[in-house]
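Q: What structure does this chain adopt?
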Amino acid sequence: MKNRRLLITEPLALIFMQTAEKWQAFIQNVYLYTYHQQCAEAWEQYMQKEELAAVREAMADRERVELSADGKTQKQHSPNMSREDIDRIRRARRAEIAQSDMPAPKIQPFEFFCVRDTKDKEAQVVFVGHFDPDTDQIDMATWEDVQRLMQSTK
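A:
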């Protein structure tokens, strides 16, 4: 997750907190959905970078350098590329790239907060937790316990 924090409303959390397995599956599914989005975003950025490089390379290939009679170089430009040429080059480059060419985004642990939404006040934190996708470990505590612990360490 980009900001690595997830807010979950209390009613939704309570539905999945009926058993530890349901809660674990819910948090893992949230993580997998977010990871899928990150991969898709990274893939699209990678493809755009590769397509741009292919178009720039094709445009550079269209320029020729010739020596004039006095030994100086002169650039001779071909006519500009048409939009169709650019699209063809981009599609061809996209077809050449395998998904394995792009490194997968790094898996990041994230925090989650279960909040009680009150209409007249700010949302109130009920539970806090941490999920590490590498180990599939969820650590949770009530917000009251966290506050008590913070008070005792002062």
